[in-house]
């Protein structure tokens, strides 16, 4: 466990928006933490989607991703292929892992698959629209979970790591058909929104916190009254009133309590120095920071879950045609999208990049180490009901299956965590070439919202059930 | 393998539809988003008549068809920049707080950033607003001089009237005045210490910055009537100054100064002469032509040894300067395609075959072979690979942004371009790949010709006369245009486009979308048709087009499509 450390006072005061606050209180929750109020312990879910596919066997491309054989996985068996296949790097956590091959997107690949893949990744429905304008035909799984299990007005935590270069940026989380949810790329901002939740050394409310809570309550009451007053204006349309209602539901009063929170709901899990460094000069969107930003986001999602501040999160790592230039063996190599195509262009018409395959293999290993970071850190988190990984799942995938082909078949799927004992662990299974709708229906169910008809081609995926 | 453009909205147009007629194969539909269903918290607009009314197809001269669904929200959130500017101006701060840089980003909508559809408040943004309001209030209340600029805290009613009027962009109604005074009075007991009056002011500021009246631009005039003076002042100010209306503009509006077309036109003319309007028009062009994309330009250092990624910012600023110059000089759409003005510094001038001293951008006049924006090195280098010009991207960009053509994606995967054959030019290679079979329908006459017109510019936008040892061929026939005009080079093509009816219609539609902060609808057809004609007949300036738009009923009329 990281030693407890006092939060940076300046940053905390900015987060609290006032002076004299150095204490716990709940900023983001509409009501008292629900750990002790639910019939079943809550389950938390994180969906991670990376870019440009992985190196797996396809045509003449070698297999460098999947475990060597279906069936049970152990640390020993995974270590045996760790030198060749990137997933072996997760061997220390073998008992917490489930690999699922045989998952496809329901819609066909048409032209550029990046936006289509991103859109289908969590909606499990064919996309609509062309090229980078492709968009969803339904909500994403995180939206369904948030609407069912979060308090009213609390959407999924929607995160992003990468440069956002404007062609295909965030396209993973959809509140409804065609309505993409903006993703936060700066982990410092995520922290700022959580800061009011953080425990300090005492864990006890103080008069100052009570005062701030009262003041916010007064302001919130005024704002609610003003919203209602405006809504009564007969000139407004239903759409306008819906828009005001949406604002109304986001207004939540502060709870001055840390009761019923996980022990890990603590500032000790925040690397404030790293967060501030990413915030400085907008470093978080610079080339070369994508994996570090992803790690910070993973820490903050773990903290969010430990604090029961949200039941679901998404993390998109890289934009649709991720142009990150990774550093491999001290050399900054070509843009990842080009590397994934094996040629120096966004298509197939550029000069061949001789080292592209090896670079992609190396990039996959870098990305797998980032996922290992999640496993390492989340192993330190506990909820009020026990270890986080016993009460959560983290899905790792990519928006296309493989680089040069952009294929939508046999997507790389890794699930960490048992989701309250519902999911198989320590195993590599074959789903048999089914739609990711079945995978997502199962995960939505595991999160606590029984669902069998999510997306196109739903039903539960028995192969991943414990 | 499919081809995905980092920078272009279409690389997959290789298999574009087969129909040569403009309105069919590469229709003038602006975009998918134009037929959107409204953002969260919104609903679908109904059809309507009268100014701007309803969604549907707008048919404009030249055959351009635009599908749009304006929602006509009466409640439109401030953009983040508008929030930042408004906080500064409502509270008379000397500079921006900078707090909006931490706001939850707006969802990408594929439209201009001020489009009404995307401007709602999410749960994360609500937290950002709360935190920022508290931080601003603390800062102001902790600075006696800052507080004094706003009024006398010993006289809460007057203080509230002045500040909240600026924040709400109109005089307060009694209910609002009572509510704000109530929380001011409560403020004395909401802090552990401090002067009760100052505490009252502080909590009042916290509150007023979180009210829907501040965070949203609200219009409550009756359906079909002219917007009230203060509503018009607000709409104008956010469009042309990107901030809350000044006290003077509010005074004028309240006194009836915007209630007549003449009064409105006078005010708009004055505002268009302000430097702030240049920023607004620049933001329009920057978003329309995607200038920020230049930051992803990358070139082969061996092929272009003087190129560094640091140049990308220079190219971006140079094209911003270009568009700003056109606006302030009173030019119209034509000059975007034909002007010989450019901005260079010591690093970029050599790519034009010029010399310049120092890092500052200076204005130069280029030769006739460099007409307009399409021949500036930012556009050319962006639409190119590491080593070679990219006629497909260049052609698609011209079709999309100049002609509002909607290019459909190809079915299935796209085979790779063939390898270079010794002696084969870039054009020949692209032709061999795209001008056969199903691809030919759009590539042959629609996408490739404008791209080939720029083949005399290499991947960094430098003029070249040969390619792979062969003379470059910049000629073509642009079959998407009426009359299927032929051209021999970009100078001729730029002249053709500058006189083309569809191109003028397209520009006017884009500008209207930005000015109205919404999609255009069938009810806008008359205005757009008139302005198209003005643009093509008189080369109406960009400022004059804006003036006509914001003084039209399409801008000034209150609309409630779905009560």
Task: Provide a brief overview of the structure.
The complex is a heterodimer of chains A (466) and B (563). Chain A is an alpha/beta fold. Chain A contains twelve helices and 14 strands.
Defining traits:
heterodimer; A: 466 residues; alpha/beta; 2 domains; eight-stranded mixed β-sheet; two-stranded antiparallel ribbon; 12 helices; 14 strands; 13% strand; globular; disordered N terminus; B: 563 residues; mainly alpha; elongated
Structure description:
The complex is a heterodimer of chains A (466) and B (563). Chain A has 466 residues and is of the alpha/beta class. Chain A has helices spanning 9-16, 75-79, 114-123, 141-149, 187-194, 207-231, 238-250, 272-279, 290-306, 336-341, 356-378, 436-447, and strands at residues 44-50, 71-72, 97-104, 157-161, 174-176, 179-180, 312-317, 327-328, 331-332, 382-383, 386-387, 392-398, 414-416, 427-435. Chain A folds into two domains: 9-205 and 257-320 and 381-392 and 412-464, no CATH class; 211-253. Chain A contains twelve helices and 14 strands. In chain A, the strands form four sheets. An eight-stranded mixed beta sheet of chain A has the order 2-14-3-13-12-1-7-4, with helices on both faces. Chain A has a two-stranded antiparallel sheet with strand order 5-6. A two-stranded antiparallel sheet of chain A has the order 8-9. In chain A, α6 (207-231) packs antiparallel against α7 (238-250). Chain A starts with 8 loop residues before the first helix and ends in a 19-residue tail after the last helix. In chain A, 62% of the residues are buried. Chain B is mainly alpha-helical. A two-stranded antiparallel ribbon of chain B has the order 1-2. Chain B has a two-stranded antiparallel sheet with strand order 3-4. A two-stranded antiparallel ribbon of chain B has the order 5-6. In chain B, a hairpin with a 2-residue loop joins β7 (466-467) and β8. In chain B, α4 packs parallel to α6 and α19 (501-516) packs across α21 (542-550). Mean pLDDT of chain B is 85; it is low at 1-53. At the A-B interface, α1, β6, α5, α6 and α7 of A face α2, α5, α6 and α7 of B.
